[in-house]
Design a protein that fits this description.
Elements lengths: L19 H23 L7 E8 L8 H19 L5 H4 L11 H11 L2 E12 L12 H22 L4 H18 L3 E11 L1
Antiparallel strand pairs: 1-3, 2-3
Helix pairs in contact: 1-4, 2-6, 5-6
Organism: Saponaria officinalis (Common soapwort)
Protein name: SAM dependent carboxyl methyltransferase
InterPro entries: MeTrfase_7, MeTrfase_capping, SAM-dependent_MTases_sf
Length: about 200
């Protein structure tokens, strides 16, 4: 994790409580990663060739906005609850952070131009709803069940490495409950950016 993240105690992602140093640490790491990605891919694409990317991001200016932090805020709620109950050590929670950054369209455009290998031909933004209302599911709560399975596939290994395998099932049992509660109250969605890049 980049320097500065250690200040992000009890939050596992960017939040309104995150310091400027934490915000900058996340953004600087994204700049490095995305620029390296573009540079590496540019070696595999001929001049005039096209590359399509879809990246989870945000529409708003603030990198800690609800549209990009909610999924992790709900998980943080569970982890903090389990810490207060003694299932998780507080010092371990304070070192756990989701290594992801949700860029805005302007940030992506700026970084593509700065790296210099590609021209941004198009960028389109669309939503992917959390609530996939599958019919005839064997589960009483199919939408939150499938969503939580998806998130578990992303973060389970990181959670095991930090907190141990013995608490994983309990984390996701509780996580499904808070996700389900959130889905009942409001419509949740991921923001996606679809980029069409042309190699110079």
């Amino acid at each position: 994790m980049p320097d500065g993240i250690e200040e992000n105690k009890k939050s596992i992602y960017l939040s309104k409580a995150s310091s400027t140093r934490v915000l900058n640490a996340y953004y600087e790491q994204f700049i490095e990663d995305f620029t390296t990605f573009l540079s590496c891919r540019s070696k595999e694409v001929i001049g005039g060739g096209k590359m399509q990317l879809t990246i989870i991001g945000r529409r708003c200016v603030q990198p800690f906005s609800k549209e990009c932090s909610q999924v992790w805020d709900l998980l943080a709620t569970v982890l903090n609850e389990m810490t207060s109950e003694g299932f998780i050590e507080e010092k371990k929670l304070n070192t756990f952070n989701i290594p992801n950054y949700y860029p805005s369209p302007l940030e992506l455009k700026t970084l593509v131009e700065r790296e210099g290998s590609f021209i941004m031909d198009q960028i389109n933004t669309f939503e992917t709803k959390w609530n996939n209302d599958y019919e005839n599911s064997v589960y009483k709560d199919p939408s939150s069940y499938d969503f939580v399975k998806c998130i578990r596939s992303v973060v389970e290994t990181m959670l095991i490495n930090c907190f141990g395998e013995e608490v994983i099932d309990e984390i996701f049992i509780r996580y499904q409950k808070v996700v389900h509660s959130s889905m009942i109250k409001e419509e949740n969605a991921f923001i996606n950016h679809s980029l069409l890049l042309i190699k110079k």
